[in-house]
Each structure stands twice: as structure tokens, then as C-alpha cells.
Design a protein that fits this description.
The complex is a heterodimer. By secondary structure, chain A is of the alpha+beta class. Helix content of chain A is 57%, strand content 17%. In chain B, a hairpin with a 2-residue loop joins strand 1 and strand 2. Chain B is globular. The chains are: A alpha+beta, B alpha/beta.
Chain lengths: 388, 223
């Protein structure tokens, strides 16, 4: 028999108590791995997603950069408009330097018959592939003014199929020619129309919400941004990097909150392990005395207790990591529910470095929780212990 | 025969608050290798204290204990651990078997603390199990055993390291008379294997089975 086998056998002596402690550790480590993986993926996926938009900067009405970030990533509504002439002004100023320029109009349209608000997204359809390259569309892009593209949620809710008509209340009906596959973003809730038709429908002719721009030479972006800001009044230019930082700061408080909750969970489970092992020590004092009498040294006794604690936290740690991967979709949905914005892509993924770090951390927790009980056990007087 | 223990004028004094209690009061005696000695006396006479000192679990306040001509009082804690591990086997009144381990695992538990564990072969463990009559119970847990069987397992655990001496503290106190006699005879038979046996008991009838009796009263040898 080895010390490890003895530790396992001792742990199985109090099955219910140790199982409950284990559940605490598993929950804490599941949350730890999930949150760390989520946070790590957050910035990486955000960067990837922003790069996928294919634009280098956005021109919007002067205001809050957070609104711009939100607009770029999930089509939020900005209650301000730019005159359409800004687009031609930019074209004139930048000339051949522009690769893509895409004006968009985002607006909320009440739909009384359906008792909801339709989110309208007007865009020049030829630019969609540049702005939303990750979309998968069932059907095709609208080619005429009476054709629309709808998000996944709308199609699901209204049980829409391509070829059917979609009513925008008294504004008329449009033929659904394309349905976007689920994106898990606010794009799922939008109705996409050709820009001109959206402007007509919303009575916002000559108005746009923002202009996305992709340059031919990205190295010149800072000079161009400065130049446009000076040359065209009333606009705000936000680069993709600024949007990245803006979104990161928007999500920071939620991420800090989740990490704080995990830290508390870890602390509670560590105290719980410590408590269990102090109880165990009290119950096993005579046993420890016997072991000292039959030749166990103080260090042997210390090792027996600390190995049990490490074993318990290690089992909890490995199981916790595994559970966070198995339940990643559910955990992701839960975490996303209190995040202001979450980028596309899988957020909780197997990351060997993170898994190893969490595993080492659980071993450290075992040492931390087991150290004091093991130290107390080591100090048990064999005579007093045997006397009981 | 050679001297295994030489006890020279030892006293053990405890302090209970301001009160001074002399558990042992200037006792001297020797135990030869291969002896079967019974230490008797009423409760509080110092029997268990003496056994703990013989087992190197405790040190006398005054006096010297020589084990195989080595002064135990001058040994470090580590040396005492080694001495207990390699030369002394303990049998307790309450058996102190680990409930999560089988009979076999309980008996081999001391090997865990012994660096020379590998030299003990399965044959020797089987020999002990057969000798104690518990071979067919080797895979059972303590809760599945009778009191007599549990004490046999405890004796097996004491024998596993081939000790020079077995120290038994009231080994029959929790057993019926029939099992008590069997355990005593079993302990006595160990002498034939060259093992010295020292038993603390308050049962005078059983003590009569020993080669020699040391009777204590108020920390002194009276017989």
C-alpha cells in the first residue's frame, strides 16, 4: 500500500461529507475555469470579430464612442443622424484611398399589429459581405426595394421561410429573400433592407447613422482620421482599435464581477476543505496516535493528511475543468446573460495552459487547506492520542 | 539470554495544575530477550505509563531506559521513531484498526512507514495471517470481524516488522474470557519465535500465564 492509496481509502471513509466538500470544490473550479476561459476568449474573439468587419474606422455623429462600438458589433440604435452628403464629402477628401465605404441607417420602427418594435437596418447590399463576412445566409441578398433579409430570431419567431411576405405594419409588406443563420448577436433581431428603401420607409431620406470605411493603405489611418476630423465638422471618427478598447471597458465591470464571485467561491471551498480536515483530525486523533506508536514519524502523519487534502482538491479540480468544458454552452449562455456585449465564437474552450494553471491552482488550494490540519496532526502527542 | 530492557530507577512525574503526580516512582528492573512478562496492578498504578516508556512513546522524568544497551533517553525523536518502527510492536486495548482498510492492509500498514518495505515478501505476510488464523478474513474490513479477530489483526500489525518486542496494553480488556485466553496464548506463543512480549493487564488469571509478573502499586514495584 502506498501513501496515495491510503489517502484514497481514508477519503472514502466519510463518503457523504467528502462528496459534499468535493461538490463545493468542483463548483468553484468549474466557475474558475469557465470565467478565465471566457475572459481570455473575450478579447481574442473580439479582436477577430472586429477584424472580420473589414472596416478600419467608423464615421458617426459626434457623441459617445460606446454607442459606436455597439453599433458596429450588434447594430444598436443611435438616435442621431449624419447627412448623406458626408459620404460624398469623405469620397471627395480621400478619393482613391478608399477601398470600401458603406453608409448604414439603423432605426426602430413600431409594428402595432405585431405589438413589437421592428429593428430596421438599411445598408447597401453589396457592402454586406465586407461588413458581415461571418454571416451564413439561407437564400440570397435583396436585389430589389421590396426584398428583405431577416435575422434568425425574427425568422424563428414568425416561422418565416424565404419567399414569404413580411409585414412592416402599415408601412407595407416585403418579400423575404434571405434568412441569416443564427449569429447569437443582435443581428438575429434585425430586418435588413436596401439603404435607399430604408431611408424612404423611415422618412429619413438623405440621412444615415454611420459610415464604415476600409482603406487601401491601413498604415495611413491615423493621418486620415486627423485629416477628416479637421476637414468635416460634426462627425466623430472611431477606429477599430478604439472600438476594441471601448467594448473591453464596457465589459470590464461584468468580467471583474464574475472574477470576484469566483474568488469568493474558491475561498469558501478552501475554508470548507480546511473545516472538513480539522473535523477529520479531531475524529482521527487516536488513529494518529496509533500510527505514531507503530512507527510513523511526524512527517509521515503530515504527509497522510496533506495528501488527502491535495487528493480531494485535485479530484475536484480535474472534475471542475471537465465539467466546465462539457457544460460550456450552458455556462456561456449564463455568463452572456449578464454581459453587455459578447463577441462571436466559442468562449469556453479547452486551453491546455489554462487547464494546467487551474490544475496547479487546485493542488495549491489542497496544500493551503490541508497545511494547518496536517501541522496540527503532526503535533498530536501519541500518548495523549492513545489515551483518548 | 541477553538483556533487552534495563530500567534504572525511573520516575515519571506529571503536573496537574499545581499538583504533582508521580505515575512511576523510582522503579528498576530488567527484561531478558524472549521473556513473556505481565505487568499488573490496579488502575492508576502506572502500568500504562511504564508500557509507554518501554515503547519509547514517552520518556521518564528521572532515570534511564536501556534498550539493547542503548540509552533511549539520549535518542532524538527521529531515532525513537525508527526504533519503534523497526524493533517494537504495539497492541492496544481498542485495536485501533483503520476502518477503511482490509485486514491485509491493516496488517501491512507499518510497512508504509518503513524504508525497507520491499524486503517483506507476500509469503511472510501470508505466514502471519495463517499463524493468527485470519488468512480467510484477509480481505474483510474491521467492521466485519469479531473482537477476537480484530485483536489478532492488531497483533499481526505488530508482528509485520519482525520486532524484538511486542508491548500489549490491556489486549484482552474488550474481549470475552474465551477470546481473552486465546489471545494471551497467542501472545505467549510468540516467545517461541524469539520475540519478547510485555503485556499490561489487570486480569490476574491471565497474568499467571506469563513467565514473570511485575506488580505495580502507586508507581512502585511491589512484587
Amino acid at each position: 500500500m502506498s501513501f496515495l492509496e491510503l489517502a484514497i481509502k481514508n477519503l472514502t471513509r466519510h463518503k457523504i461529507r467528502n462528496c459534499l466538500t468535493l461538490i463545493g470544490i468542483i463548483s468553484a473550479v468549474t466557475a474558475l475555469y469557465a470565467i478565465l476561459s471566457f475572459n481570455k476568449s473575450f478579447m481574442r474573439n473580439l479582436y477577430v470579430e472586429l477584424n472580420k468587419t473589414g472596416i478600419h474606422f467608423m464615421v458617426v455623429p459626434a457623441g459617445c464612442p460606446h454607442e459606436v462600438a455597439s453599433l458596429v458589433l450588434h447594430g444598436s440604435v443611435i438616435p442621431k443622424f449624419l447627412p448623406e452628403t458626408i459620404e460624398s464629402a469623405i469620397r471627395e477628401k480621400l478619393g482613391e484611398g478608399i477601398e470600401v465605404i458603406s453608409p448604414i441607417l439603423v432605426y426602430q420602427l413600431p409594428n402595432i399589429s405585431k405589438q413589437r418594435i421592428d429593428l430596421i437596418y438599411g445598408i447597401e447590399m453589396e457592402n454586406i459581405k465586407n461588413l458581415k463576412p461571418w454571416w451564413t445566409i439561407k437564400g440570397r441578398l435583396p436585389e430589389k426595394n421590396d426584398e428583405i433579409l431577416v435575422g434568425y430570431e425574427i425568422a424563428e419567431h414568425d416561422n418565416l421561410k424565404t419567399g414569404q411576405l413580411y409585414s412592416l405594419d402599415n408601412h407595407g409588406s416585403y418579400k423575404v429573400v434571405g434568412i441569416i443563420e443564427k449569429t447569437s448577436s443582435k443581428d438575429d433581431a434585425f430586418v435588413f433592407l436596401p439603404l435607399k428603401e430604408a431611408q424612404r420607409l423611415l422618412n429619413k431620406e438623405k440621412a444615415i447613422t454611420a459610415i464604415g470605411i476600409k482603406l487601401k493603405e491601413v498604415s495611413k489611418i491615423n493621418d486620415i482620421v486627423d485629416y477628416l476630423s479637421k476637414e468635416i465638422p460634426g462627425i466623430q471618427i472611431v477606429t477599430i482599435n478604439q472600438i476594441l478598447m471601448s467594448i473591453a471597458s464596457l465589459a470590464a465591470s461584468a468580467r471583474i464581477l464574475s472574477l470576484s464571485i469566483v474568488t469568493i467561491a474558491i475561498l469558501i471551498s478552501t475554508i470548507s476543505v480546511l473545516n472538513v480536515f480539522l473535523m477529520t483530525l479531531f475524529e482521527r486523533t487516536q488513529e494518529i496516535g496509533m500510527m505514531r506508536a507503530i512507527g510513523a514519524s511526524k512527517s509521515h502523519v503530515f504527509r497522510i493528511i496533506i495528501e488527502e487534502a491535495i487528493m480531494l482538491t485535485t479530484i475536484g479540480g480535474l472534475t471542475g475543468i471537465l465539467i466546465s468544458l462539457v457544460l460550456s454552452s450552458t455556462i456561456e449562455r449564463f455568463v452572456k446573460s449578464f454581459m453587455p456585449y459578447v463577441p462571436q465564437g466559442k468562449m469556453i474552450v479547452f486551453d491546455p495552459l489554462l487547464a494546467i494553471s487551474c490544475f496547479i491552482f487546485t493542488i495549491f488550494l489542497g496544500i493551503l487547506a490541508g497545511f494547518y490540519p496536517a501541522y496540527r496532526a503532526m503535533k498530536v502527542s501519541p500518548i495523549e492520542a492513545i489515551k483518548g | 539470554m541477553t538483556k533487552l530492557y534495563k530500567i534504572e530507577n525511573i520516575s515519571k512525574i506529571y503536573h496537574r495544575g499545581s499538583e504533582e503526580v508521580k505515575a512511576l516512582n523510582g522503579i528498576s528492573f530488567s527484561i531478558e530477550t524472549g521473556e513473556f512478562v505481565a505487568i499488573t496492578g490496579p488502575s492508576g498504578s502506572g502500568k500504562t505509563t511504564l508500557l509507554h516508556i518501554l515503547g519509547c512513546l514517552d520518556r521518564p522524568t528521572i532515570g534511564e531506559v536501556l534498550f539493547n544497551n542503548r540509552n533511549v533517553g539520549k535518542m532524538s525523536d527521529k531515532e525513537l521513531d525508527n526504533l519503534r518502527r523497526e524493533k517494537i510492536g504495539f497492541v492496544f486495548q481498542q485495536f485501533y484498526l483503520l476502518p477503511g482498510l482490509t485486514v491485509y492492509e491493516n496488517i501491512t500498514l507499518p510497512l508504509l512507514f518503513c524504508r525497507k518495505a520491499k524486503q517483506f515478501e507476500k509469503d511472510y505476510i501470508d505466514e502471519i495471517l495463517n499463524y493468527l488464523g485470519i488468512y480467510n478474513r484477509k480481505n474483510h474490513k474491521p467492521k466485519e470481524l469479531s473482537g477476537g479477530e480484530m485483536q489478532r489483526v492488531a497483533i499481526g500489525r505488530a508482528l509485520i516488522n519482525k520486532p524484538d518486542v511486542i508491548l500489549a496494553d490491556e489486549p484482552t480488556a474488550n474481549l470475552d474470557s474465551q477470546n481473552s485466553l486465546k489471545i494471551f496464548e497467542l501472545l505467549k506463543s510468540l516467545v517461541n519465535k524469539g520475540i519478547t512480549v510485555v503485556v499490561v493487564t489487570h486480569n490476574n488469571e491471565l497474568a499467571e500465564l506469563a513467565f514473570r509478573k511485575i506488580k505495580l502499586l502507586d508507581g512502585k514495584i511491589i512484587e
